[in-house]
Amino acid sequence: IDEETSTIIAMPTVINSTEKLDKMIKKMETTYLANRSQNMYYMLLGDCTSTQKEYVDLDEKVVKYGKKLIDDLNAKYPAEPKLFNFLYRKRVYSESEGCYMGWERKRGALTQLNLLLLGKLSKGQIANSMYLVHNEIPKVKYLITIDEDTALSLNSAKELVAIISHPLN
Known about the structure:
Elements: E1 7-14, H1 18-34, E2 40-47, H2 57-76, E3 84-89, E4 91-94, E5 99-102, H3 105-117, H4 123-129, E6 130-132, E7 142-145, H5 156-164
C-alpha cells in the first residue's frame, strides 16, 4: 500500500469481558498476518456495555488490559507509526434506551473514528468520549471496517485498496 493510499482496518465490537478483548486482539493479529503491507494499520473499536451507571469497574480493566495487549502486539511487530491501536468509547446517557451506552453504538463508533481521523475532534472531545491507547494515529486515506464475525482473506485488504484507488474509481 502506498503512503497516499494508507488504510486503517477497523473492527468495532462490544467488549463485555477481558476474554472478549483477548479474542478480538488475536483476531486483529490474524488479520494483520493475512494482510501485511506498509501503510496498513489496525484499530480495535471497543464499545462499552449498556448499564445504568456511567462508569463500571470493567471499563478500567478493559482500558488497562487493552493497553497491555496493544503494547505487546506493537512490540512483537515494531513499526513507526505503530501498527495497532485500541479505542474504547465512554458511555453517554441514551434517553431512548434509558441507560448509559456508547453513543449510537457501531454507527457512532465509526462516526467518531472518522472524525478523529479527519482531525475534527479536539483533545477535549476525545478525552470526553473515548479512551485511546496511542494518541498518535497515522494519517490515512481509507478505512476498511470488518465486523466481529468477518475474516479478511489473504491480501484482500490490499485488493480492496487497489480497487478503490484505481483512477477510474
